[in-house]
Structures are given as C-alpha cells and as structure tokens.
Amino acid sequence: MEIRNIQKTGDMHYLYLPTSWCREHKIGSKSKVSIEQSSDGSLTISPQITERKPKHLKLNISEDDQEIIHKLVVACYINPLSSFEINFEKEMDFTKLLNQKRLISLESVEIDKKQITCNGAISISDPESLLKTMAKKIKNMVIVMQKSYDKELIERYEDEIDRSKMLIDKSIISSLTFERTTKANTIDLYYISLISKDLERMVDHLICISSKETEFLTLVQETIDQLQSIIENTNNLNYKAALQFVKKVTKIRGFEVKDIKSYDKERIRLSLTTIAEVVTDWAITKETEK
After folding, report:
1. Residues 104 and 207 occupy one common structural domain
2. Could you tell me if residue 249 is inside a domain?
3. Taking a C-beta distance cutoff of 8 angstroms, is the pair 142, 161 a contact?
C-alpha cells in the first residue's frame, strides 16, 4: 500500500495519481476516470468509465417439465436482464406452472401458449432494506398464527416473504454483476443472502405449525424479534449482540422427529440455528473492520 499526501488549493482537495498507473492505463490530460464510493467510505478509481447495460436474453427450449421451467423463469427473473423470452417447441398448458410459488405475481412476466416473456424487470438496489422487510413480515405472520390464524392472510404473508427473498437475490446478483454502489458492501451482501435463504426455508415449515403450539410459536416470535433488531442496525452489530442471539436460539430445544409435526418444528429450529451461526460470522467480520 502506498500512502500519499492530500493537496489543497482553495476549497479543492486533490492527490496525484501514480505515474506508473497512468502510463499502464494510458491516462493522459484528456482522459476520464470513474470514481465510486463504497459503504465503508473508501473510493475506487477506475482507469476508464465502463458502462454495462442489462441485455435481452432469448432462450429456445424443448423442455415440458413444469418444475424445471419454473426454476428457469425464476433464474431469468433474478438476473440483471433488461428483458427475456423463453420459447417452447410446442404449445403448453401453463395452469400448473402458475400455481408454483405464485409465479404469476412476478412483475412484467407474461405467459402465453408457447412463450414466456418479461419486459422491463424491476431493479432493486437495497437488499439490506429488503431483508428488514422480510423479517418484519415473518414476525407479523407469526403474530397472525398466534391470534387469529387467518389461513388466507398467512398464505399471503408466505407469498410476500418468498417474493422478498427473490428480490434480495435479484438485487445482490445485479450489484455484484454491475458493481453498483449499494448501502451494503460485498461481504454484507454475502451475509444478507445467507440469512434470507434460511428465513425462507424456515417459513416453508412455519406455515405448517398449528396455532395450538403456543409455546413454540412464542419462542419463534421472540427469536425473530431479536433478529429484526440486529438487521435494523447491522452497522453496530458486534459479537456481544450475536452471542445474545445465539442464546435466544438455543432456548428452542431439539425435537425428536416422530411425525410431520415434529419434523417441521425441528427444521425451523435448524434454520434458526444456521442463521445464528451466520449472524455470529457477520459480527466477527464487523469486529475485524473496526
């Protein structure tokens, strides 16, 4: 690392670029460079302004398995594309496809007899905000399960949580692909991705829990409450807060899997345990950055 002094003329602050770097990248008096500011306050100077634009993707497939097609559509949706189209060799009945994770709710995705298209897919630049929203929706869903157990509302929450996870993936992939500046730096994006993935997995089992499991639902709600507090202020995340969260998760004891009900409860516990491990890893990373 080379340390250089900041120069000042009037109200302007400046420093000289290394001569060898300018020579290597053919930087002259008429050249332009791009400057990006990261969330940690550092500046990145690039030798040229590179503007990458999302492209249109066209796929032609002979596949007719609805589950495989669903995975392909979601993969296209979460990637940074301006638009995409998937063409099929033969006309298909898409009624079953539409029932998978409520695919029809994806913005701009249109399904025709032999084609699936998406134009002007939305772009999200703040995955950390999406994770906060995801945690809030899970907490609200648990409250509904404890009080009224409105099945339709619970299913709606599950759909919104699934969608939040998908938008987080889309935002992170877009940020990493186009090196866009977000409020979160690269390592934060990594931890956000891991947490959102396990939250979604947990919800898939949580919706199967009966309202009669009041003690268990209360423990889950308290745990999500504490996780939400951490997510709301990740800049101040430290190892002490992480260890408190780990203690909260360990209060949910392991379940001997005897039936579907105990299996769902154990899967929820394991997902929260994994999230606790990720939060601890994230906290130690924050400690190293101080």
Report:
1. no
2. yes
3. no
Residues spanned by the domain of 149: 127-289
Q: Confirm if 199 and 274 have CB atoms less than 8 A apart.
A: no
Closest listed residue to residue 160, CA positions, set 200, 198, 217, 126: 200
Region of poorest pLDDT, from 6-15, 36-45, 138-147, 197-206: 36-45
88-138 tens-digit pLDDT: 988 877 666 665 555 655 667 787 878 888 886 566 778 999 999 999 999
CA pair distance 177, 147, nearest whole angstrom: 43
Four-CA torsion 168, 172, 174, 176, nearest 10 degrees: 180
Q: Does any domain span residue 161?
A: yes
Rounded Cα distance, 62 and 144, in Å: 43
pLDDT at 50: 52
Place of tokens 């939040």: 164
Task: Count structural domains, the chain.
Answer: 3
Q: Are residues 141 and 235 in the same domain?
A: yes
Q: How far is CA 99 from the centre of its chain?
A: 23
Two structure tokens written together for 3: 């340390």
pLDDT over 80 at 183, yes or no: no
257: Cα separation from own chain's centroid: 31
How far apart, in whole angstroms, are the C-alpha atoms of residue 267 and residue 254? 10
CA 92 – CA 231 distance, rounded (Å): 43
- Dig out the tokens for 134 from the structure: 């995801």
Q: How far apart are CA 119 and CA 110, in angstroms?
A: 9
- In this prediction, residue 181 carries a pLDDT of 55
**Poorest-pLDDT segment among 78-82, 84-88, 139-143:** 78-82
pTM of the predicted model over 0.85: no
Are 155 and 204 members of one domain?
yes
142 plus 262 within the same structural domain: yes
Tokens of 149: 């157990």
| H helix and E strand count, the chain | 9, 8
